[in-house]
Amino acid sequence: MVFERQQVDEALDRGEFIPYFQPIVNLRTGELRGFELLARWQHPQHGWIPPGEFIPVAERDGWVGLLTRSLLWQAFCAVRDLPDFAMLSVNISPVQLYDLSLPEQIESLAAQCGFAPQRLTVEITESALTHDLDRARRTVAALKEMGCDLALDDFGTGYSSLAQLQSLPFDKLKVDRSFVGSMTERRDSRKIVAAVVGLGLSLDMGTIAEGVENSEQMEMLRWMGCELGQGWLLGRPMPAEDLAQAVSRTEPRIVPGMPAEVKSSGGLEWLPSQRLAQLQAVYDGAPVGLAFLDRNMRYVQLNRRLANMNGRPMIEHLGRSVGEIIPGFFPQVEPLIRRALQGESITGVEVTKPDDVPNPGTTILLSYEPARDEAGEIVGVSAAIMDITAIKQAQVALRESEEHFRYMLELLPIIPWIIDPEGRALAVSHRWKEITGTTEEDWKGFGWMKSLHPDDVEPTKAKMLHCFTTREPIDVVYRVRRSPKSKWRRVRARGAPRIGPDGKIVSWYGCLEPLDGDW
Fold first, then answer.
1. 216 counts as catalytic
2. What sign does the dihedral 25-26-28-30 (CA atoms) show?
3. First-to-last CA distance in the chain?
4. Could you give the C-alpha distances from 98 to 61, 70, 93, 128, 373, in angstroms and in order?
5. Residues 6+ apart with CB under 8 A from 328
6. What span, in angstroms and rounded, lies between the C-alpha atoms of 77 and 82?
7. What is the CA radius of gyration of the chain?
């Protein structure tokens, strides 16, 4: 479509160019943070003309400055009465960046409308920095002096360098919509987006993602640490008359996948260097051996504890495979690591080191967890190795001690027993089974009373109930026998309660003594 200059001038006079506002949203909280100013041409004959058709013509034919001033004046007047958190972003063309009068024009328009320049973010495309950097610095310095923020737009699509990022006082980086739109399908796009976000965090800059159109994209961006986003998912461009209603919405712009309880971090975002330092501190301070293995089972990260367990310095591990570091032990762990690389969580596998590896005979507990990137693809394995040799030795020693104690009790001329506060049998010496002829299933609970002489059951119950109430020691005599043809034998049961921290009886401990000779 051809636009004559006279036609454009008349359109500007009639106010056919009007501002639209696209919401910019905090991706962590869903809260509105501002709007980007977009241009729309409402042509009386052709209807709505998209900016992609008239903006390039305006830059080429030299009327982009007039267009920008018209749109800014309307936008400033529309936004001035909104709450201060509602920032306004405007994209200026490369031609305007080299116009040294631009800051003065913006300041004058803001003053006419009563709009604070501190609420304005000026977006500059990468391509604008390739011609006259010194002149651009002068324009940018004047804008910063006014209090405006500065954003580098469409980062990654042009030719700007890190030196330019360092030399110009940018506050924000904008991730181009072409990368955001393809990052759910293309791995290279995901890596570029992650790199841009990481660069912004490293340079203490905010990051804004353009073209967020579905919840999967938004979740990836949040996972990467991107702060702000805009796109149809988060809010479509709107005319000025809809701004007040958009700002007054009390509910956050939460979409599926965004936890409602997530709150603003209040400026406590960690830089990558801080995260790495924290990660290393966690690694080194962990009471277990930790490592991260890539898909080729090479050590990418590990702590000193694991290096010591493997008998090799940390530096020798990095970049080398598990098979190279512990060849004698590798056949045992390789199948577990491969299962983790296929997506399976391997937890708590107990193995003993063979004789031809460092620390032979050591018993260790292995866990391997698949590590996934922002798209859910497995990029490696997180390994946790715990030396449980001392625990196993303690368990063996405890079992041996219990066996010694049990054997000693069996030799004593008494029968130890334990009952609960109501009289249910919890444990008794094996000799009880011998003198009563009962099985373990028979004597447990109240079953032990079935072995008593019928005339002794009620008196025994009464005596024990009295002791349960008064906490007096149990001292009762009753008769038992092995079989219906056996002789009844008198035994004496004595016991005392164990009191818990809350003052209540936990259980009763006691023993049986024979009164008619030996057992």
1. no
2. negative
3. 115
4. 16, 19, 9, 9, 42
5. 354, 356, 357
6. 10
7. 39
Pick the catalytic residue from 36, 123, 126, 210. 210
The mean pLDDT of the chain is 85
Residue ranges with strand state E in 220-344: 228-229, 289-294, 299-302
DSSP state of 156: T
3-state secondary structure of 316: helix
pLDDT tens-digit series, residues 385-398: 998 888 888 888 88
Averaged pLDDT, 487-509: 93
Q: Is 59's pLDDT higher than 50?
A: yes
Token pair 């009886």: residue: 505
Q: Contact 430/409 with Cβ under 8 angstroms?
A: no
Q: Distance between CA atoms of 131 and 432, rounded to whole angstroms?
A: 100
Contacts of 431 (CB under 8 A, 6+ apart): 410, 415, 519
Give the amino acid at 274: Q
- Integer Cα distance of 365 and 348 in angstroms: 6
Q: Which residues are 25's β-sheet partners? A: 32, 229
Nearest CA-CA partner of 11 in 93, 52, 66, 78:
66
Going by C-beta distance under 8 Å and a sequence separation of 6 or more, which residues neighbour residue 63?
Answer: 5, 8, 9
Q: What is the pLDDT of residues 241-251, one digit of tens each?
A: 999 999 987 55
Distance CA(202)–CA(197), nearest Å, equals: 9
CB 117 within 8 A of CB 107: yes
pLDDT tens readout for residues 259-293: 434 333 444 444 444 555 666 676 677 788 999 99
Residue type, 348: G
- List of residues 6+ apart from 157 with CB closer than 8 A: 126, 176, 178
In this structure, the dihedral spanned by the alpha carbons of residues 282, 286, 289 and 292, taken in order and rounded to 10 degrees, is: -20
Query: Cβ-count burial of 134 within 10 angstroms (0-12 exposed, 13-18 middle, 19+ buried)?
Result: exposed
Please state, in angstroms and as integers, the Cα–Cα distance from residue 498 to each residue in 193, 471, 493, 504, following that order.
66, 10, 16, 9
Q: Predicted confidence band at 357 (pLDDT cuts at 50, 70, 90)?
A: confident
Distance in angstroms (rounded) separating the CA atoms of residues 11 and 25 = 33
Sequence letter at residue 303: N
* Whole-Å CA distances, 171 to 160, 441, 516: 16, 76, 96
CA distance 268 to 414: 68
In 351-503, alpha helices (H) = 389-411, 430-436, 440-443, 454-470
